[in-house]
Specification:
elongated, 5 helices
């Protein structure tokens, strides 16, 4: 017993000493790191706003309208004591994450852009901050924004040149610039007579949404519906997928109006995903929602965006779901997109079959022999 107590006391002393050392190191290094970051930002501000001779930090600016994007800091750009523009420091998601400085004058013209941090893929997304990489216009990716008016918007491939093979990074940088220039431009317009915005606040980017089974039904069919479990043979795996649940859906009068099936299958990730599809008595897909998904953030996870999953509404449970013909794939995530479409097909067909016993339309001849995209076989 004494040995155990001695050992415990020794371990506690070592742990305390380690915590003290870590705290001491943090106390010493944190101010140095902060100073280096401040020096980098100060140098960057002069780079993005060369006509300014001084910068004054402000704190009463409007925050980003997109909860995923943060306006971390904002500075007034001055020349001879007069305000001539502003610089915003903006952080948010790209393929990974980025922090940029963007300068804008009182006419909402961009004076320069610089990356303070970018953690995207080498050889692809990192080209955005590479001073040796040029886009179609002949300048660096970030250099092409100087001289552009923020009122013209930031649409990748339209109002600015995207990086080939890095569409997510390109589009996301546009989102950062949109938020940063809007906040800075509004501040200049309100406080220093700058030009007004040509439109409203930037629209926040869609976010992937995962549902529970119950919430998915409410989102598709609305409140007031009840469900009843439907028995099924769980030893059968249609197209190597697992049927997790089948229900019929009843309205307020108790009448069966639809059926839903939850199916799990392979996606780009080995862990796969689960979704639910709802079908009405005409074998029409009323909607689908994703319950579980382990694919790559900003790529495969974007199959959980409303703009993707809403494409399957009003399709038939008996039609093949093919890319480009029946739905648009997520850029850079064609395998995830096709795997989700395969799961929708299986879930919708299983729901339609279950509904036949409750007055739903019967399966057309040959519909049980449907085929899938089966991209997962290429993994």
């Amino acid at each position: 017993m004494k040995h155990i107590l001695k050992l415990g006391l020794t371990l506690a002393l070592f742990a305390g000493a380690a915590c003290f050392c870590l705290a001491l190191v943090n106390h010493v290094t944190a101010p140095v790191i902060a100073q280096h970051q401040e020096e980098k930002a100060n140098a960057g501000m002069k780079t993005v706003f060369a006509d300014a001779d001084s910068f004054e930090e402000i704190s009463d600016f409007a925050p980003s309208t997109d909860t995923a994007i943060t306006i971390e800091k904002m500075y007034l750009a001055k020349s001879g004591g007069n305000v001539i523009g502003a610089v915003a420091q903006v952080s948010g998601p790209t393929y990974e994450r980025a922090t940029i400085l963007v300068g804008i004058d009182k006419e909402r013209v961009i004076t320069g852009v610089q990356f303070l941090a970018l953690s995207d893929s080498p050889g692809f997304g990192l080209k955005a901050s590479d001073p040796s990489f040029t886009v179609a216009s002949g300048t660096t990716f970030y250099g092409q924004f100087a001289g552009k008016n923020a009122n013209d918007g930031f649409v990748s491939g339209q109002t600015f040149d995207a990086i080939s093979g890095a569409t997510i990074t390109s589009r996301s940088v546009g989102n950062l610039l949109s938020q940063g220039t809007f906040s800075a431009g509004e501040y200049l317009a309100e406080k220093y007579g700058g030009s007004a915005s040509a439109g409203g606040a930037p629209v926040a980017a869609e976010k992937p949404v995962l549902f529970t089974f119950e919430d998915a039904l409410v989102d598709i069919l609305g409140e007031g519906c009840a469900t009843e479990d439907v028995p099924y043979d769980d030893s059968i795996y249609p197209h190597n997928m697992i049927v997790d649940k089948k229900v019929v859906v009843k309205d307020a009068t108790g009448a069966v109006i639809a059926a839903a099936a939850a199916v799990s299958g392979q996606t780009y990730s080995e862990e796969g995903g689960t979704l639910v599809a709802v079908v009405d008595k005409t074998r029409t897909i009323r909607g689908m929602r994703i319950i579980r998904l382990h694919d790559t953030p900003n790529l495969g996870q974007n199959t959980a965006l409303p703009s993707f999953y809403n494409q399957f509404a009003e399709k038939s449970a008996d039609q093949d779901l093919r890319p480009a013909t029946d739905y648009d794939v997520i850029a850079g995530a064609s395998i995830s997109s096709d795997c989700i479409a395969d799961m929708v097909k299986v879930a919708a067909y299983e729901a339609a079959v279950a509904l036949e016993a409750y007055g739903g339309a019967p399966s057309p001849a040959g519909s049980a022999e449907y085929t899938l995209n089966e991209h997962y076989l290429m993994e």
